[in-house]
Amino acid sequence: MPSSRGSGITLADVAAASGVSTATVSRVLSGNYPVATRTKARVTEAVAELGYVMNANARALARSRAATIGIVVQDVVDPFFGYIARGVERRAAELGLACLIMASQGSKERELELVDLLRAHRAGGVILVGGSADDRGYRTKMAQRARALADEGGNLVLCGRPPLGEGLPTRSVSYDNEGGAFAITSHLLARGHRRIAYVGGPHRLSTHTFRLAGHRRALEQHGVAWDDDLVHVGQFSAAFGRTTLTELLRRGLDATAVFAANDAVAVGVYEAAEDAGISVPHDLSVVGYDDVPVATQLRPRLSTVSVPLEELGRRAAELCITESDAPDADSIVGTHLVLRDSVSAPREARILRAG
Amino acid sequence: MPSSRGSGITLADVAAASGVSTATVSRVLSGNYPVATRTKARVTEAVAELGYVMNANARALARSRAATIGIVVQDVVDPFFGYIARGVERRAAELGLACLIMASQGSKERELELVDLLRAHRAGGVILVGGSADDRGYRTKMAQRARALADEGGNLVLCGRPPLGEGLPTRSVSYDNEGGAFAITSHLLARGHRRIAYVGGPHRLSTHTFRLAGHRRALEQHGVAWDDDLVHVGQFSAAFGRTTLTELLRRGLDATAVFAANDAVAVGVYEAAEDAGISVPHDLSVVGYDDVPVATQLRPRLSTVSVPLEELGRRAAELCITESDAPDADSIVGTHLVLRDSVSAPREARILRAG
DNA sequence: CTGAAAGCGCTAACAT
DNA sequence: ATGTTAGCGCTTTCAG
Description:
- Chain A is an alpha/beta fold.
- Chain A is built from 13 helices and 12 strands.
- Chain A has helices spanning 11-18, 22-30, 37-50, 56-63, 79-94, 108-120, 136-151, 177-190, 206-221, 238-251, 263-276, 294-297, 309-319, and strands at residues 68-73, 98-103, 125-129, 155-159, 170-175, 196-199, 231-232, 257-260, 285-287, 304-306, 330-333, 336-338.
- In chain A, the strands form 3 sheets. A 6-stranded parallel beta sheet of chain A has the order 2-1-3-4-5-11, with helices on both faces. The first copy, chain A, has a 4-stranded parallel beta sheet with strand order 7-6-8-9, with helices on both faces. In chain A, strands 10-12 form a two-stranded antiparallel sheet.
- The termini of chain A are far apart.
- Chain A binds a DNA duplex through helix 2 and helix 4.
């Protein structure tokens, strides 16, 4: 940034121009203290004439908290994060909060750094979005950040991830990963599928873990034997879905359906099926998770579980500013199945192969 | 945010703990001034032990500029903006800058407000992303903001939009909207199309205006007569693409190809074609613009013009901190055609109808 | 190479 | 209802 000292107009200028003290100007600007209608008008006028804009940093310093919240996502363009970010940004705007966004790119270490960066900015709240790593050291370090943040008057809010542990000063808003997975696997089961491949996200990532757990519970409840060979853990990406299914097909896939752990993975699964000349849902049924726009762009349209991502973001933004011991500091929003065209009854029991 | 005063650790604490003055601590933290290796070590140690994190607001106040840049997009989830935002965020992180993101939702008034908000935060740079309105009053007001921002030591950077006017303190990084459109229409022409419908973005939005201009120039250069009935102005959305093409098909479409002014519009065009039982590209060729992921997810894969969105964002972030009179304050990044499967030679001259 | 001290612009007691 | 004033935590001359 250029180095000029910035000849900005200050509160004092406004005070001088309207013939009142800086305290009065501050009061009309904050609007949280009685001021005579007349003087208020004079001040407002002076503000407009001088084109005065408040120095948010000075205010944050004086108030020891900024009107800013921070949101850390894995990737800004991933629609899962994108919709949550949109909810956060919109609600924040309504609440008069600015929104600092940062991307961890899936790195736990980076995430920790980003929380510190946000602490440095004295963000009123720091929202951690999406699944978290099941890692002892990480959890300990984040817990320490949670305490520090709380000490400093900020909030750590977990959005779509499990709590850090007992008695920690965090609040959260999540959705039922396990339940959604249970429901969609149950749907597959109800249609007659018994051999279902699970193509999922990163090892020990909470999102994946819970989805897999829901899948497993559905299988158990329907008395379908668990088969480790059917679960494939890797990434939440189209690339992973594609290479995984391609490989399975090469080896001969003994399944009639695949549960893609999110819609992005489903995209890859569709591609692999297409490459192999396998028809969805005729030869292979596919379901996803998240219900992002691509689900309706795929052909056949993808059956998936819908998560109210934007609403999740809005709530997270609110949790940034609610007082510490609110009654429902931890809430859960519902998910629901969206049944489209990617599932049919299994055709016959046979091994699926490329070509 | 909870009201606690924030018992944060300050520079003074670190100074006390390491037995030096606050000035010295400040110097090692800023790293822009010679400090004895020994004392530097002591300070660094104290910082770690106390878990000290700098107060960014205090620093910003003292320096009269924050290590923050602002980015204003129309919509966080739109991939056009998303990829640019990703580039901005990534480059900003590399440069040690935090990134405030705000969404204008396409409102000029809101955009102006957001710039003022970012001014309040003393952002070192404010990046305005995407096409801008061709509106006199708006332009005047934004020009005024540009001057104010420059006065205050900040930068206004235009990313993917035309300059505000002569002699204004702005810098910009764009791509060739007109050229890309010229190229892709030329491609359609080369394949034999003569009747091409243009289904485009918002009236007077620069992006749309330039794309349409390029389209027109290609037509002229190939000696194809201009037909106003073939251009349809509206929104950059799938919904607009769909309703527009549906309506055209209902009335009977005398064209063999459609130029969707961006990929989102193309999505809608595909849907309408599908609804009407019209095959792409057999009955109708389609091209888009932007080359966002959906282009490869569509079937047939969409031919479109690729814009280096993320790179655009990275450059924009850099422009936020380059000194005022840099040699190339205004740059243009190239676009290129990506030819996939959505174009074929026109089948025959006939009117396309639904059903 | 290090310290002392005067701000940066605003807020929030405390007066009046 | 309004003014006074002491900070908020860091940077940056200016001395030493």
